[in-house]
Automatic annotation (TrEMBL):
Keywords: Coiled coil. Residues 71-105 form a coiled coil. It comes from the Eukaryota. This is Uncharacterized protein. Residues 26-38 have a biased composition (Polar residues). Residues 1-38, 188-210 are annotated as: Disordered. The keyword Coiled coil applies. It comes from Pelobates cultripes.
Length: 210
């Protein structure tokens, strides 16, 4: 039984080996053959395991592909982010342009509203001025007594006729602003005689009106 059991290898060197008793030639050859077979089987097993490990390990190409795939994905995502940022920048610029135009339009609207708010006051003042002008006496006569034998209106008409040298007419000319130099060359058109007027009024000649 001892011949079939492999003896352990002695790594203690020749000094220790010399101290041991020499074995028989037959048992020594049998032990060496068993040891060699065991070592060969162990080496074969180790080689098989190394082969399996090498097959399971990634090659350089596989490692490069694994590293390259995340890079490609990151590049695509970065490109998408850049495009999104560019689109957002364009939208912000458009919004700023629109806001600037709205601001200018708002200012113009404020100016227009302010003008329209002041317009009623201006119109009211103009209407009041026109009312005052329409009610205002255009001619004031001083020194003429109101007590007399003739009616005051007839006396004034005769006075104006003598001063102006024209007959009374049914046409009323309204002049808002006119100087004496502008009134000199003006001449009113002759009116047709009225049948109800007395003879001295129908035959009178009209002169320049001041």
């Amino acid at each position: 039984m001892d011949d079939f059991v492999a003896k352990p290898l002695d790594f203690r060197g020749p000094q220790h080996a010399s101290k041991m008793a020499p074995a028989s030639p037959g048992s020594e050859s049998t032990g060496e053959s068993l040891a060699e077979d065991t070592q060969a089987s162990d080496l074969a097993q180790i080689r098989a395991e190394l082969t399996q490990i090498s097959t399971r390990m990634l090659s350089k190409a596989d490692t490069g592909s694994l590293v390259q795939e995340p890079r490609v994905v990151l590049r695509e995502e970065l490109a998408g982010l850049r495009s999104d940022l560019t689109a957002l920048e364009q939208r912000v610029e458009e919004m700023e342009t629109t806001a600037h135009g709205c601001e200018e339009q708002h200012r113009a609207t404020e100016v227009a509203v302010t003008r329209q708010g002041n317009m009623p006051l201006t119109l009211r003042r103009q209407v009041e001025d026109l009312k005052n002008r329409s009610r205002r006496n255009n001619i004031r006569v001083r020194g003429l007594p109101e007590t007399g034998t003739e009616p005051l209106q007839a006396t004034l008409i005769d006075l104006f006729r003598q001063l102006l040298g024209v007959q009374a007419r049914d046409v009323i000319c309204c002049i808002s602003t006119c100087g004496l130099g502008d009134m000199a060359p003006m001449r009113l058109p002759e009116a047709a005689p009225n049948r109800n007027d007395p003879p001295h009024r129908r035959g009178g000649s009209e002169g320049p009106e001041e």
